[in-house]
User: Fold this.
Amino acid sequence: MQLAIVGLGRMGANMARRLLKGGHEVMVYNRSPEKTDELVSEGAGGCYSLEEVAHRLKPPRIIWLMLPAGEIVDNHIKEFTKYIDKGDIIVEGGNSYYKDDTRRSEILAKKGIVYIDAGVSGGIWGLEIGYCTMVGGEKEAFNHIEPILKTLAPEGGYLHCGPSGAGHFVKMVHNGVEYGMMQAYAEGFEILKGSPYGNKLDMGRVSHLWNRGSVVRSWLLELCEEAFSKDPELEEIRGYVEDSGEGRWTVQQAVESGVPAPVITLSLFERFRSRMENTFADRVLAAMRREFGGHAVVRKGEESKLTSKGAGAVSHARADKE
Assistant:
């Protein structure tokens, strides 16, 4: 099939490559032309404006957006409506909020343009393994683009989830679950590392072991094994963890729906925590312990004196006084 991929970041570019390998005719556009040129050298059709994208596609046009969520997506859609026609299809393959999908779908429907939301998971491994794709929108439009989905996804790796917004809603919850799983693994390895056996345990081999018949086996553990093999102590990275939005939206949805989601919620808060050092809240806690119990505090510049072993001993010795 013929389609355009707009946005050639790590996901968009590799999706275009997978589609080219699958025999599709792929037009590509990126704000920085260098990325477009790179894909052109690999067999894609290069476009250097949104107007050119529309002109080079044959109706009914299929335009697949892989852009940062939010205003950028809205601006691109607004611009495309100047050049495309009734019956054309815009697929939003980024990480948009599902309520934005329903809004866009209603606006475009008045112009006769079809909007599909596609939540895509696969990361940098998608080119090789395929992209799990969760799709929302009209079933007829889903059927029309299904050859593209078959090429992008591994076997059984795509699903029509329901009307507009359903695809990104399922992807949103998927990412919330991902937050919780990652946090559980991280805490587990932290407990192993802080144990009397921590200096003797090979975390890469533990990851490998847990992936052999264990109930906690997963692709995430495979990635842990790979990371530990490159850097056993993970000394080359800092424990600063961003969140891309879907985790927040999942927690927000849990509140709106009245559904308890403590694990996902706490995993999101732990990501916030990872970006903070010597917080005011922690200083307040230390000050209160000092005031009510006379507990020692670590003053500015004395952090190096407090080893992990010493901190553990202090906390156990004083636990009964709090």
